[in-house]
């Protein structure tokens, strides 16, 4: 896991990107950039946000520290305690649960060797449960860092997580072979070509 720190600053590449993000907002609305900047900072710092990171962002944005603390502590996607670097989030809300999220959870526990809410012993992965990820038509869904993996079952989840453990990045999206959220058995409408 990334250590706690007493100081932080963006890498030159992230600093450039952060300035580009900030430029999208009016000068008197700098606070609006806090969400993407928290995301960038968390990624740079290995999956969580020590206080020094939050303070840096407050200074960078020129806003009171509390404005950054309250956002970081409110939203589930930000971690203010040390966790594994790779964020593995299983959706267990009703549509995903009906489509087999229990099997996804079981596969994640089996492969990662930790429970929901825990990180792996080597600090690489953080496994957690999440509410609806907004991709119910491709349930069940696993959100890994910036990617959604969809249409999962026990075996597909195992295969995915084992690949991630080997350092690979499997293609994101539906793991069932369908394109996007098209019907799983093929097209059901607009079948005529009009010729
Ligand atoms: S319920 Fe899982 S994505 Fe909506």
UniProtKB/TrEMBL annotation:
InterPro entries the UniProt entry points to: NuoE-like, NuoE_dom, NuoE_N, Thioredoxin-like_sf
Cofactor: how bound: Binds 1 [2Fe-2S] cluster.
UniProt xrefs under Pfam families: 2Fe-2S_thioredx
Location of region: Disordered: 164-195
Enzyme class: oxidoreductase
A Gene Ontology molecular function term of the record: monoatomic cation transmembrane transporter activity
EC number: 1.6.5.9
SUPFAM superfamilies: Thioredoxin-like (SSF52833)
Reactions this protein catalyses: a quinone + NADH + 5 H(+)(in) = a quinol + NAD(+) + 4 H(+)(out)
Gene3D superfamilies: Glutaredoxin, NADH-quinone oxidoreductase subunit E
Entry binding sites for [2Fe-2S] cluster: 91, 96, 132, 136
Keywords (A to Z) from UniProt: 2Fe-2S, Iron, Iron-sulfur, Metal-binding, NAD, Oxidoreductase, Translocase
Reported cofactor(s): [2Fe-2S] cluster
BP GO terms, sorted: inorganic cation transmembrane transport
Gene Ontology cellular component annotations, sorted alphabetically: catalytic complex; membrane protein complex; organelle envelope; organelle membrane
Family per similarity comment: Belongs to the complex I 24 kDa subunit family.
NCBIfam families for the chain: nuoE_fam (TIGR01958), PRK07539.1-5 (NF005725)
PANTHER family for this protein: NADH DEHYDROGENASE [UBIQUINONE] FLAVOPROTEIN 2, MITOCHONDRIAL, NADH DEHYDROGENASE UBIQUINONE FLAVOPROTEIN 2, MITOCHONDRIAL
Protein name: NADH-quinone oxidoreductase subunit NuoE
Organism: Marinimicrococcus flavescens
